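quick one before i forget lol
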Amino acid sequence: MRIFLAGIMQGSHLGATLHNQDYRVRLRQLLETHLPDAQLYDPLAEHTDSLDYDDARGREVFLHHNRMCGEVDVVLAFVPQASMGTAIEIWEAYRHGRIVVSISPLAHNWAIKFLSHVLYHDVEEFERALAGGQLAERLAAIAAHHDNARS
């Protein structure tokens, strides 16, 4: 299973600064523990100095990551507040028939509500579902449904 770790980076900051990215470490650890066979792609880990990219390089990386979201098996999106980049990644995954798992308190936000196959209110709820095997079961059921719909 290939998982793209989407999540808020710049959010609504007006300057070239990032939101706290500690969630990436925690989610990566949880996935490595409970889904050890999954291949995780973390865009920030691959592009640690992305805020310093010139426009051409930034556009190239941005569009590449959006294409990737349409190719992986699962997009795991951490969205504690609105994030335009994450919304695009979720949309690209959804419109290409990929599974979207969101961790967000924004349950009434239409992008989260209507494009997520699975929604957890916070990381703790996600962790319980992951550790208890419920997430793996849901992913398998959704994947089977997608496979049947394509046939």
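fyi The beta strands are 2-7, 39-41, 74-78, 99-103, 118-120.
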